[in-house]
Specification:
325 residues, alpha+beta, Immunoglobulin-like, C8orf32 fold, 8-stranded antiparallel sheet, 5-stranded antiparallel sheet, 6 helices, 15 strands, 37% strand, Bac_transglu_N, Transglutaminase-like, Papain-like_cys_pep_sf, Transglutaminase family protein
Length: 325
């Protein structure tokens, strides 16, 4: 039962004073028998009241408005959490029976949303791959593991080559990306054979062997398996998501699980810094930090470090409805 201390800081520094900053945040960890939250402190500049609600997918969402003029806003989420190992599927139901059960879920809420396929021109190329990887005797569980391994083996993990705006076709052509790209591609493969699949956002915490994406925001997929329920599968690391994966939110895709969204009134130029640190059980800390500038919808200055999460935050900022005072 590992215990992790996670700090996720989002900092906005504006060129001038802004006001009426309205934001939606999904920074609250899922609470169930596998995740025990010991403490969660959320500190926001100006201490605005945060109203929370549960969205359609069961995620806890916070919303707040910081009305006073300000040139700096920090959203600081500090979390202490214990994770519990999740048992693997027994997979002792006949394969045909499991596939038949999945077939009958096609028009059942809420599985309908998790079976809908995004438009993807490369489907004609991916379908033969899916059929080649899948054997007639394979159960949904074994099929999901094979698809996970295929993504892991055939797509290169490279930070910065994609953004959350990158399409499935671009990812397919690049044969590279990061965690959210791998998750989206795995979901396509699962949905093609009738396995409901959903996107998971959260953190991957360090272990002794090291994992890609550890100590930072992370994403993976969950597959619905008959007789078991939702099983987390991490194609970035070719593993079943277990006690080193801390879940924040689930949804159809990345857009349902965005950690921070907002609008404000004021000047356009500002600087955004996002940092995530995860405490090891032995007291060591792994930290990832992204810093970049957005001004009048311009590109960040040369030399600024930007991975895919940073690029997502840039996109959100560029889409904000800014109004001059």
């Amino acid at each position: 039962m590992p215990e992790f201390k996670i700090q996720h800081i989002t900092k906005y520094a504006y060129d001038g004073f802004v006001r009426d900053s309205a934001n939606k945040i999904i920074l609250y960890p899922i609470v169930d028998i596998y995740q025990e939250v010991l403490k969660h402190d959320l500190n926001i500049t100006g201490h605005p009241q945060v109203d929370t609600y549960v969205d359609y997918y069961g995620n806890e969402v916070g919303s707040f408005t910081y009305t006073e003029p300000h040139n700096l806003m920090i959203i600081n989420s500090q979390l202490s959490i214990i994770t519990h190992p999740r048992p693997l599927p027994l997979d002792n139901i006949f394969s045909a029976e499991q596939w038949n059960e999945l077939f009958n879920l096609r028009y059942v809420v809420p599985y309908i949303d998790f079976l809908k396929q995004e438009y993807f021109e490369g489907l004609s190329e991916l379908r033969p791959v899916v059929e080649a990887e899948r054997k007639a005797e394979d159960t949904p569980y074994h099929t999901a593991l094979k698809f996970c391994k295929y993504v892991y083996k055939n797509f290169e993990y490279i930070k910065g080559v994609t953004t959350v705006e990158t399409t499935l076709d671009e990812i397919w052509a690049l044969k590279a990306g990061v965690c959210q790209d791998f998750a989206h591609l795995l979901m396509v493969m699962l949905r093609l054979v009738g396995i409901p699949a959903r996107y998971v956002s959260g953190y991957i915490c360090p272990n002794k062997d090291g994992m890609r994406g550890e100590g930072a925001t992370h994403a993976w997929a969950e597959a619905y398996l008959p007789g078991y329920g939702w099983l987390g599968i991490d194609p970035t690391n070719n593993c079943v998501a277990n006690e080193n994966h801390v879940r924040l939110a689930v949804g159809r895709n990345f857009s349902d699980c965005s950690p921070v969204k907002g609008v404000y009134k004021g000047v356009a130029g500002h600087r955004l810094e996002v940092s995530v640190s995860v405490g090891y059980e032995d007291g060591q800390v792994h930290e990832e930090k992204d810093i970049f500038t957005v001004a009048n919808h311009a590109r960040p200055a040369a030399g600024i470090a930007r991975n895919s999460y940073a690029k997502y935050m840039e996109m959100i900022e560029q889409q904000q409805q800014q109004q001059q005072q």
